[in-house]
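Section 3.1: Structural characterization of target chains.
Under the original work plan, the team committed to producing a structural model for every single-chain target entering the pipeline before any wet-lab resources were allocated. The record below documents one such target. The sequence was received from the expression subgroup and is listed exactly as submitted; it comprises 421 residues.
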Amino acid sequence: MKALKAGDWRAPIVVVIGMGTSRGDLGQTAFEWIGRAEVLVGAGRHLELFPEHRGEKLPLETPLAAMVERVGRLSETKRTAVLASGDPLFFGIGKRLAQAFGSDRLVFVPGVTSLQVLCARIGRPWEDVETLSLHGRPGEALVGDILGRIRRGAKLAVFTDPAHTPKWIAGMLACFGVPPCEFVVGEDLGTPHEKVRFFTPAEAAEENFSDLNLVMIFPTPRSALDRQPGREEIFGFGESAFAHEAGLITKMEVRAVALALLGLVPGQVLWDIGAGTGSVSIEASRIAAPGRVFAVEKNESRYAMLIENLEKFGATGVEAVCGGAPRALENLPPPHRVFIGGSGDALDEILEAVCARLLPGGRVVQTVVVLETLDRVRRFWTERGWEVSVTQLQVSRSVPTGKDLRLDALNPVFIVSARRR
């Protein structure tokens, strides 16, 4: 839509005005539109800012769908303005109105967001801050999403809701043992009751906060620990980055191909069967951080190394399970993806359990060294009508020889990928 002036406003155009955090954030243009409105729609605290306005005042109520429909009816005959918190097109009602009426019927007057205001209060730039809204999202996915971003050192602004408060967020962070971070809460921004406070997650988990709030999480300055392997990269770690028994680890190149074949999606459940010291689980959790990864390992010494690696990498999204498959799988949630790195003598039983529990659209990826095992795995899936592919991976790495290099071959590996047709 071309720029429209308040003096030319006619129904059924709806004007959506960003209120910032207070009336003082409004400019002359916003006041001109409000002055021309015959109907003001907004939260009670916004309508109270205009006691002198002679138009009809309609408080925003739930369900929102009914309110949007009512705004649509009113605006057919009356100049209707919707007062929105912050900027209406930044995690605001603007998106919902655009979906309902189309952009040609709307005029947006942008406002200052609470994110801008909080960053101004604490003197921090916000061009590289990631934003996340918790409204209407399930708790498990939220925890993984927040943890994943913090583990990779993101600066994060979190818009809360009544169920997922600053106290709830801080409690989850403290429980999962995230890397050191600064937890900032801005309450009642732009009002006489405004407060901006700094905490550690453990401290904030003991506090109560106003319902009108914004959370920001900043990584602390890098320390020697932050520069250890696993604090910056997402995946592609050499074997030396992990505690492991000599040779008993999925090689970096094999991990890369296996993870590509798994096709991980955020929010999914992955079983890593025969997880060893956890290299695949750890990299999988970093690629699809909001998901849940279950690393199943029966060997006690390798399980101890798995725990050590999870702590080293801060892999809070991985749950270690000490036990042999398939019994150890019985109490796990059904998976979207399964990686099998080791099966021992229980190959057939494990494949049957995976086949029975795998969710629709799921995939299974397995590494195999021995030809007999390759044939058994391939036949198992093809007999059930699954789509099967086999990748043979032969890796040679350079090693120094005098002033030159030569190639040293690793053992060849077969990677079997299976999914329902």
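The mean pLDDT is 90.
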